[in-house]
Amino acid sequence: MPGNSFGKLFKITTWGESHGKGIGVIIDGCPPRIPMDEDIIQSMMDRRRPGKSMASTSRKEPDKAIIMSGVFEGMTTGTPIMIMVYNKDADPGAYEPYADLFRPGHGDITYMAKYGIRDWRGGGRASARETAARVAAGAVAKALLEKEKIELFAYTPELGGIRAERRDISAINKNMFLCPDMDAAKKMEERVMSVRKKGDSIGGVVEILAKGVPRGLGDPVFDKLDADLAKALMSIGAVKGVEIGAGFEAAIKLGSENNDSITPQGFSTNNAGGILAGISSGDDIVIRLAVKPIPSIMIEQNTIDSSGKPRTISTKGRHDISAIPRINVVCEAMVSLVLADHLLRQRAISYE
């Protein structure tokens, strides 16, 4: 099954299914002598772990990351790093009633069309459970970025139609939705409670801020930094749109409004989102992405079975109300992987 690897110099391959024995990742190309141990990875894994907010599934997975290779005496060795995460609370039996049905909004029908077979246990490889492996890899990439003083923040400016009016980074870790506006976070809580009672789900927006990214990362023409970031983030199952900097607002601006004037002190604005001509400008990289509502809902929906007969389905079980806030750290991990990869690619051509 192709399409399981990502990156060029800092390359990862994820494996495993939602209700199989476990999931994991192999990282190839990580430089040696990067401080690394299981606690470093676990601190990032815990941010994705189920049960962290009222919007989360009740599935209880410890998501304990186990380093199988590539680390010795607290340092990466430069050899492939393998990280294993065992599934401890899998319940494939909960999906047996839907084994013959195509769930609306899921990849059931497209996986069957492509392969002629599918793992119906929670979606198998198509499950959001796969993203735990990405987070483990992202923790390694982030450790590399931290050596270069690059900082990443992933927060929630919008959830279920509730929008943050402020961008207070210090507020992110003070509420369960990672919202940069405490007043908006309270309204988000009320919104989630209301939707939960109806058996429905909601979507939202995640914003990622990368600070300290040096100039020069990104390769023309097809490996532009923003192109690779968009691909990385669109590879996350629930993401349906990505914009960088001013994004779609740039379409209604005049050139005189959208251009970022350059002064001896730097750029006067940041409509470019820290990327010009596909190459980092040294300014903050700002990315926003649209996250769709979780497709598994209790409200009855029309569908068909594997024979093409019309059926109805109400998906019961342990499901998130929203992919936010658990998806935030996944987005941060994917941005970390892209930046780490391009950092190594830039070093490969550096003549200094």
Explain what you see.
The protein is of the alpha+beta class and 352 residues long. It has a single domain, classed as Chorismate synthase AroC (Chorismate synthase, AroC fold, 4-Layer Sandwich), CATH 3.60.150.10. 26% of the residues lie in helices and 22% in strands. The strands form six sheets. It has a five-stranded antiparallel β-sheet. It has a five-stranded antiparallel β-sheet with strand order 9-8-10-16-11. The protein has a two-stranded antiparallel ribbon with strand order 5-6. A hairpin with a 2-residue loop joins strand 5 and strand 6. The model has no long low-confidence stretch (mean pLDDT 93).
Please state roughly what percent of the residues sit in beta strands, choosing from under 5%, 5-15%, 15-25%, 25-35%, 35-45% or over 45%.
15-25%
How many helices in DSSP terms? 7
CATH level-4 homologous superfamily:
Chorismate synthase AroC
Q: Mind telling me the CATH class?
A: Alpha Beta
Percentage of helical residues? 25-40%
Give the radius of gyration.
21 Å
Indicate the structural class: alpha+beta
Tally of structural domains: 1
What would you say about this model in short?
With 352 residues, the chain is of the alpha+beta class.
Overview features:
18 strands; five-stranded antiparallel β-sheet; Chorismate synthase, AroC fold; 352 residues; alpha+beta
SSE blueprint and pairings:
Elements: E1 5-6, E2 11-16, E3 22-28, H1 38-48, E4 65-69, E5 71-72, E6 75-76, E7 81-86, H2 108-115, H3 131-147, E8 151-159, E9 162-163, H4 182-198, E10 204-211, H5 225-234, E11 239-244, H6 255-258, E12 262-263, E13 266-267, E14 275-276, E15 279-280, E16 285-291, E17 301-304, E18 310-313, H7 326-349
Antiparallel strand pairs: 1-2, 2-3, 3-7, 4-7, 5-6, 8-9, 8-10, 10-16, 11-16, 12-13, 14-15, 17-18
